[in-house]
Amino acid sequence: MLTEEQNRLLTEVGPGKPMGDLLRRYWHPVAGVSEFDKKPIKAIRLFGENLVLFRSLDGRFGLVGSRCAHRGSNLAFGFVEEDGIRCGYHGWRYNLRGECTSRPFEETVAPDRKLKAPKIDGYPVRVKAGMVWAYMGPQPAPELPDWETFSWPNCFVQVVMAEIPCNWLQCQENTVDPVHFEWMHNNGPQRRAGDTGPLSPKTLDLAIEDFEYGLVSRRYREGTDKTTPLWSVGRAVLWPNGWYFGHHFEWKVPIDDTHTLFVTWAALHVPTECEPYVQATIPTWTAPIKDERGDWIVSHVGNQDIVAWISQGPIADRTHESLGASDRGVVALRNRLLEDLKTVADGKDPRGLIRDPAKNVRIELPCVARVELMNGLLKAEMLKHPVMGPFLREFYSMAGQPAAIKEEFERVMAVKQSTLDLPTFVPR
Ligand SMILES: [Fe+2]
User: Fold this and answer.
1) Domain check: are 100 and 221 in the same one?
2) Which residues are found with C-beta within 5 Å of the ion, ligand 1?
3) Are 244 and 276 in the same domain?
4) Half-sphere exposure (Cβ direction) of 206: Cα atoms closer than 13 Å
5) pLDDT tens-digit profile of 227-273?
6) Which residue from 35, 37, 181, 207 has the fewest beta carbons nearer than 10 Å?
7) Rounded to the nearest whole angstrom, what is the distance from the C-alpha of residue 186 to the centroid of ligand 1?
8) Does residue 141 lie in a domain region?
9) Is 22 domain-assigned?
10) How far is the CA of 219 from the centre of ligand 1 (A)?
11) From the CA of 419, how far away is ligand 1's center (Å)?
12) How far apart are the CA of 212 and the centre of ligand 1, in A?
């Protein structure tokens, strides 16, 4: 249980708030590169700031404040140029750093006059793994992590975005809470489907440990013991707002105090008989979180998590809780964030930042099925694999995968998903 002040400290992410300042010290994925093939400008809100993310005609990305310095018109309604973006109202042009580089009428009437050029906010952006990453903290920026999985060859990758109407922290608390798999992803769906048979194996123990880039979450269930990779290797909770499953990353990026951008990066190695495979473009799609009747979607694993987060309220009230042994990870996460707030207030780097470029080369993370996920399997072996088989059958992470992406996946994997006789994915 937290005090009101602690809950505010951990959840307020707007400009000038300590947690917002802490989170801004990390690179965050904020869009898919392929989104910009259709439209080069995207209005985006991050950490309580209204921004525009754009790809200029020379192919570089920029992230600047949305408000034109002239009279406040929104640059999202402007257009991109060779090295920046122009306001659609009077043609004021800004470069990638947000510096105004042209005011057409002023230049026409007084070409010799040197006016002090106004500036709007501009933030560094980088492209990696099919995503656009933003850094909104103080300089110098740390390294943008080069996780090894981003370089695994022969993988079909997709990026899924969803806007979640609640605070970032309750989304991230989910990652350090392994008991929820048993109830949220196994027993709940089973019972809601009318199956009153025995419940899924009980979680017997869990452990949370620090590692260089965050926390490792371990657990084992009835029918297994501590030799299971879910205990001996565990899963990586990437600091401060990520999660890694081997074939799948998640990040929870604050939009503002009560909205979060949920980003999923999911990869599947093609059957080895389909190699070599080089993906021309990583597709990006936005997942719905409600169905056509307006009900929350609970058919897919990520959607099940989302309803848990949203149902805790716009900002979870942590002053009225009954924490127990299952919440060891949640407590560890909160305590380490509170420690990091002190560390930053003392002028030091918070945990998990990478400063040494020599170290930032294909960093390997704890991964329960690394060898097969990275190197691939024959299709016949994949179909029997507990993670890869079901993923071949269906994109179980989030509902609403566009038909064109499903078709491309089937072509690349040389499968017809509807004909695969496989059980539905059971999260472990
Ligand atoms: Fe979950």
Assistant:
1) no
2) 305
3) yes
4) 23
5) 999 999 999 999 999 999 999 999 999 999 999 999 999 999 999 99
6) 37
7) 10
8) no
9) no
10) 14
11) 27
12) 23
